[in-house]
Amino acid sequence: MESKKEPLFEGVTTKELNLKNRLVMAPMTRLRAHADGKASTAMAQYYQQRATAGLIITEATMVSPLSHGYMFCPGIYAPEHASAWRNVTESVHAAGGLIFLQIWHSGRVAHPSLLDGLSPVAPSALAGTGTLHGPSGKVSLPVPEELSLAQIAEIIREFANAAELAKLAGFDGVEIHGAFGYLIDQFLQDVSNKRNDAYGGDIAKRTRFLEEVVAAVCAVFPGRTGIKLSPANTFYGMGDSDPMSLFKYVCQRLNQYDLAYVHFMEPNESDLASGAVIKNVVRTFRADCNHLVIANGGFDKAKASEYIESGLADLISFGRPFISNPNLPYMLELGLPLAEASPTVFYGQGPESVLGYTDFSVVN
Ligand code: PHB
After folding, report:
1. From the CA of 258, how far away is ligand 1's center (Å)?
2. What is the pLDDT of residues 327-359, one digit of tens each?
3. Which of the listed residues 72, 180, 234, 271 should we mutate to test ligand 1's pocket, taking the one with most ligand atoms within 8 A of CB?
4. Residues 6+ apart with CB under 8 A from 258
5. 228 pocket-lining for ligand 1 (C-beta < 6 Å)
């Protein structure tokens, strides 16, 4: 008798999409693109090797030259970027996979040495904490320039343009990066947003930028737009005086848009050690979300199954395990031992860094 599949390995269908299982490959910065932001051949192979995921979400991809937080991360603002990404989407589709592009503006998490001498931009002229790798070594996050209203309108157009180019490149949808201390998160949280115009002040005003980006991107990709949020992340100096009220409001507002899902990042050990107020993001906000929920961060098979079977989440995204186990759904379903990747290979230095990237064995 054929045994029934566990719910984690069963498909899920949305209005627009048909996912073959509930395992999502989480967005992960790997830095193997060309210096001009074009996706590389190695990237097409890397994503194709992982096409058994129910959904792949790509690494964070710049929507404008000013959103350049890291060297060798890919872009999606010029037609050449769309052509290069087309090799990736065709490779994944040929292997039967689905792939969303994560679209990203890094805001104050950038440095003039990565921006042709220009200053990074942000809601307010307040530097984040931490360092970045510039072309000549480690640099601290500088004080960014405060965005004008005209510049804010331009960035919203850049997100829409990125979505248009993603469509041209053959992506099945896009994920808006609203997490991890980057631009949208900088608008949401009051540690980094001290504006007193239509985009700062109370919770509704701080959420306005996110809503305008979501509306513009959903107009391009209705039912195929996701958003990532990290209400408990403290990296790059993030924090808010009342994260419970803020993110409850954000979730409730998002219910009005034609989204594919909301993707929540759980706090990691360092967030908890730095005093993150919300200890369990999905348990806290699930009830406020009418969309499908993806849970991310620190899951193994047992915890993933528990979340799916109890209805706490609809999908679970895995990051690191997908680096070293390209066919992760198969490995988990059969209970095979997982390979571990050394953190030294997480980040590359351009298209030639295939070591620790495309060389993990694909077990079938
Ligand atoms: C994420 O989507 O979780 C993410 C992406 C890029 C980063 C950090 C986090 O640099």
Report:
1. 23
2. 999 999 999 999 999 999 999 999 999 999 999
3. 180
4. 218, 222, 223, 225
5. yes
